[in-house]
Amino acid sequence: MSIFQMFGKKTDINEGVKRSQETPGAVLLDVRTAAEYAGGHIPGSVNLPLDRLNEIRIEKKVPLFVYCQSGMRSRAACAQLREMGYEAENIGGIAEYRGRLE
Q1: Domains identified in the chain, total number
Q2: Is 78 marked active-site?
Q3: How confident is the model at residue 43 (pLDDT cuts 50, 70, 90)?
Q4: How far does CA 6 lie from the centroid of its chain?
Q5: 47: which of 37, 38, 63, 94 fits an S-S bond (Cβ 3.0–4.6 Å)?
Q6: Whole-angstrom distance, CA of residue 60 vs CA of residue 47
């Protein structure tokens, strides 16, 4: 784990989405509420709200690229996921995303 990951530094979401697409088997995880997700999300992302992370059913070896609205919930989610044994990277908030939404 890098020093940036240890202290919660987030990756630019646009770069993070690109890296998630280039990483074999990676999951782009949206930790916003179901209503926020339904209102527009990054294509290919999976929704699992922060308050339901304990329900995750993804293999621990799968790299996770995590985002929310502004980067705060994704930061908390990454900390929780790492404690659970996952490789999780906070890529920030969808508010800064420049691509198309579904």
Answers
A1: 1
A2: no
A3: very high
A4: 16
A5: 37
A6: 17
Residue 39 forms part of a structural domain: yes
DSSP state of 49: -
In whole angstroms, give the CA distance from residue 73 to residue 70: 8
Reported pTM: 0.89
**Which structural domain, as residue segments, surrounds residue 57?**
3-96
Q: What is the CATH number of the domain that holds 23?
A: 3.40.250.10
- 101/48 Cα distance (integer angstroms): 17
Q: Phi/psi of residue 15, each to 5°?
A: -70, -40
Furthest-apart CA pair in the chain: how many Å?
A: 34
Look at residue 65 and tell me if it is in a domain. Answer: yes
Average pLDDT over residues 48-76: 97
